[in-house]
Amino acid sequence: MPPLRIVIGADTYPPDVNGAARFAARLADGLAGRGHDVHVVAPSPDGRAGRHREDRVTVHRIRSHRYPLHENFRICLPWQAGPATAALLDAVDPDVVHVQAHFVVGRGLAVAASRARRPLVATNHFMPENLFAHARIPGSLRQVAARWAWRDLARVFGRAAVVTAPTPRAVQLLADSAGLAGALPVSCGIDADRYAGGVEADVPTVLFVGRLDQEKRVDELLRAFARLPADLPARLEIVGDGARRGAWAALAGELGLSGRVCWRGFVSEDELLGAYRRCAVFCMPGIAELQSLATLEAMSAGKPVVAADAMALPHLVRPGRNGWLYDPGDVGSLAARLATLLADAALRRRMGTASRQIASRHALGATLDRFEELYRGVLGHTTGPIAAAA
């Protein structure tokens, strides 16, 4: 089949460090590697609009501004991004548009694609909980804000011929919260072989990877780690940064953990691989994970996982097989599960092997196959959802 010209709209993209950004980059690079002409439209990391090549992908940067409530976050203004995305769409003339969010860049491309009657696919990585820390919405208003956010998403994604989300649970959430029936589960995918190998550190290490924002609940991990038996040697490594880093570092000091916790901040891809390979256990206490690429990466590295029994994490963690789930907020249960794994190297090896087997079902190649199939299926379809996608 002939190659396609594809525009991917991403409101977050590397150098941003988060699951949605990493997925968009992997999707773009994977599709380009299959011979497609791939263009990514994303906010500029330095504010200036421009275009450049990143390996095999053409990246178009939209003028952006620093978000005053979060030092590592940039936003595009609708009255600037709307015309810019429409002009880019006309200039690139794609066969299909694939937006990764309903925010400013994704919205601009979705509206422009709809008006120009171009085929549109949309993928959701959004949960309101991911937004609350950035927007600093008071707790009393969060339910109202969440309902508004889901309705807003439905207005934008309702223009798409096909809507996807990373897991069946994420698809159900779209139906229940946004009223978008017929969305399809398509895993973000993983190149599992990239994470294989490595040797555990001499002192067993618990690893967390992710943004240090409230919905990740790293404070629960710190409190659980403080409850480990005194005679159990262990370290905690935290990769990532965010608004809560200072408060959580202070909490670690209050708990007497300062010498046992390593705050790595943002790291390079090679350093991240090293962290996965040397850890003994991976922990994901977050409650707003539509798939959790970090968990999938740790599993690909052959690590057992202890994770919150929330959202899509049960799709990855099989209790007693490759790790355990615990009720969010149950610090005692989290501590007990971590202690069991840290004290038993044979159990870690057995569960780590199971993690790799489970992760293999999320092969990136299969994800690329599925999106190619969806793109070709919407060619010639120019407005609204298609029944065949249901």
Automatic annotation (TrEMBL):
Keyword annotations for this protein, in alphabetical order, are: Glycosyltransferase, Transferase
Annotated Glycosyl transferase family domain ranges read 198-357
Cite the Glycosyltransferase subfamily 4-like N-terminal domain residue spans from the record: 17-194
E.C. number, please?
2.4.-.-
Keyword Transmembrane helix on entry: no
Q: Which Gene3D superfamilies match?
A: Glycogen Phosphorylase B (3.40.50.2000)
User: What is an example of a GO molecular function annotated in this UniProt entry?
Assistant: glycosyltransferase activity
Name assigned to this protein = Glycosyltransferase
Q: Which organism is it from?
A: Pseudonocardia hispaniensis
Classification from the root reads: Bacteria, Bacillati, Actinomycetota, Actinomycetes, Pseudonocardiales
